[in-house]
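Model the whole thing, not chain by chain.
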Amino acid sequence: MKIFAKIQSLDRRYIYIIVALSIIIPLLIPFNSRIDTTKPTEDVYQMIDSFAGKPNKAILMNFSHNASTLAELFPMEVAVLRHCFERDVKVFTLCFMPDTAPLVDYAINTAKEDFPNIKAGVNYCNFGYKPYSLFLPILLGMGENIAEAVEIDSEGRKLENLPIIEGIKNYDDLNLVIDFSASSSVFSWVTYARAKFGANVAAGVTAVMAADNYPYLQSGQLIGMLAGIKGAAEYEKLVDVFATQQREFSKEIIKEEIVPITGDHPIYGDKIPYKFKKARIGMNAQTVAHLMIIIFILLGNIGYFANRKKGGKK
Amino acid sequence: MTFEMISNTVAALFTLAIFSFLYKENPVYRFAEHLLVGVSMGYALPLVYKNAFIPFVYRPIFLEHKFILIIPALMGILYIFRFSKNLSWLSRYPIAFGMGIVGMGVPMSMNSSVLVQMRTAMLPIDSLNGVIVFIGTVTILMYFFFSKAHKGVYGKITNIGIWYMMVGFGASFGYTVMARISLLIGRIQFLLGDWLGLIK
């Protein structure tokens, strides 16, 4: 019983070291774990995929976070951009926070490196940073005319002169808005773009925000959701299984197929680039860290009850 | 040494400086914390100047002579009086105007957060999910009805509502743990991968 008493008074810094090691070791020695995709993630993937090769359809990615939540949101942004580039889906990006502007460029450049034919203004367009005071005017204005509401892209070019805007006028064409958010900003898109213009809205959110978004998902106001690093890992897998191989989504295939992050891939050969499997490697560490936390909770409780039985602290 | 290596090294050293708080509070941690606040503000100011002040104030008023915009610009300037003890009341005008704009969203918020949610909660109870949602909705609503004492049968029913909420809080907390661990994973991925190049 002495050991339980010791556990109760263990210096918290030992726990920090164990948690750190449970993350460092799986990152250094990655292993192939099974990532099962969930319906909210599949729904986002399928909707984007339904726009493949259609010049009069596009998606809008709104970045509503700063660098502090990059670990969860960046892999999903790269995965969605990669999906669009693979399947020839027009994509627009936008942000309303000043320190998010370089993160948008970072995500686009990371995904674009492997696609030499993808061009700004043709396949994608970064609207850039717009002041937050313009959030509502732009959000509502895009329901009428995107080129008039946004006016210029991040490089100062008039939107109406860009080839990408041909055939794209308002939310009828820009028919999916994905808000990558670490806050409740997705509700604004649901409240205004969805309710007023019937735009399809999806969320890519940090795990903290996921529980808040489920009611909107259940009521159909969000067409899908990527939740935390798990959502990002699922999307990475979907892109690897279908988009990179130019295949249509199939429930049967995704159930059966395991994409080995340490082995062969039909397109990338012996190894998928690290940037395209970052969330899946992260999920390995996440799994081990969760196991450690569960063990700590169990040990802590056993120690507590053992102490109490001995007449210790109540 | 390339620029990327230098910038990664600076970022890595500051990450370690912040992590040093886990051992104990120290001057290195405080230095990194204060620098972050300062850099964020310093970065945001010129960006807002370039992306907000120039295109929406300077250019339309001084170059395109749209003088009507002087009114909202002056209204915005009233915010600065927040720092004056005697004239801080002036800052309430732009705040009041902002609140009016927020009010514009009330009917649409009612629709998306109340009416649509109510409609989807009133589906036929023809599945196990439906039964669970029905019991949860009714018992939680009863729990928040405080005009009746939570005693006897009524108290037992509201207890079910409490259990439902506990499950909800548990799920939320589980997600929070996942999020915090993800942030640590992101930083360690940066240290081991981007900085030291140990993750391939």
